[in-house]
Fold this sequence. Notes:
2 domains
Amino acid sequence: MNFKKNYESIFIILWNIYFNLKAGIPINKSIKLVQDILKNKRYKSSIEIIEKDIESGHSLYEAFFKQKELYPSLMIDMIRVGEESGSLEIVLKTLCEHYKKVNRIKKKILNIMIYPIFLSVMIFLSLILFLTFILPTFVNMYDGVNAKLDNFTGFLMFLSKDISKNKIFWIVLIMLLFIIKFLFVVIVINVFKRLNIVPSLKIIRRYYELNLIYILNLISKSGQAFYNSFSILQENLASYVIKDYIKIISDNLKKGFPLSESMQNIKHISKTTLTFVQSGEQSGSLDESLDILCEITENDFNNTIDKLLGYLQPIVMIFLGIIIGGMVLMVFVPMYSYMNYV
């Protein structure tokens, strides 16, 4: 999931284009009407460009494709499918439902990320405060004391003097350490994506499974053939993991296997998902089965996130307590040593 994309704005755009088309308003006028509703400046500007492209004779797909840095590849490709099959209105409606769900999931994931970010910021600010304002006071305290200090106090005094002389260096060093930590996490995530590695964490497995189910539900509700839609989606999908899933399904569909059997070779897909897809195919009610499956999988994903948040909250508090306790220790040990020499 790309957090640079504003899924709330995307939902508003899709819903209004769909609603206007349903009311019989031409596509170029539908696009123009959307501009008055949007609050996000980037998306408002992109819609203005899209309107000009459509008036110049470009298709809706081509106009959105030129703005692909703001819009998901799945959305753009499904618009292409809708235009080519003559079912754009249905596709837009299902895309609205899809990105409404995606926006909910995005907010849930952001809730998880808040705690590590909050912790990192608190640690950074605490270190800057301690190294800049508190430690230097101990240098002045010990200037007039000619006594042998214990190792811990001596180290703090050396550190304090060095920080007083090179404040900018130490602040930059701490900032660099946090940046390196952030870049390391980003690199690891990208390696996982490019190598199609799905970590053993349940929450990550469920996230990819939920995204696959969303896509299946989207295609099914749009009334499109899975194989034809997959052929288009494989070209531009951002997620390497989902792209790999779709390739496996597409290859099996080409061999003549039904959807449920085509999904069996995918790792990390639950038996629940396979059972619902199979029962939907056999009963002729795949749309309904995928709707229920979306709800079940999304609830399971939300419960997993809630449990993780339940674990993270006390861990964050304990970690902050350790940091604060360490700083208190750094203050009182030198003070105690100082009092022995006064």
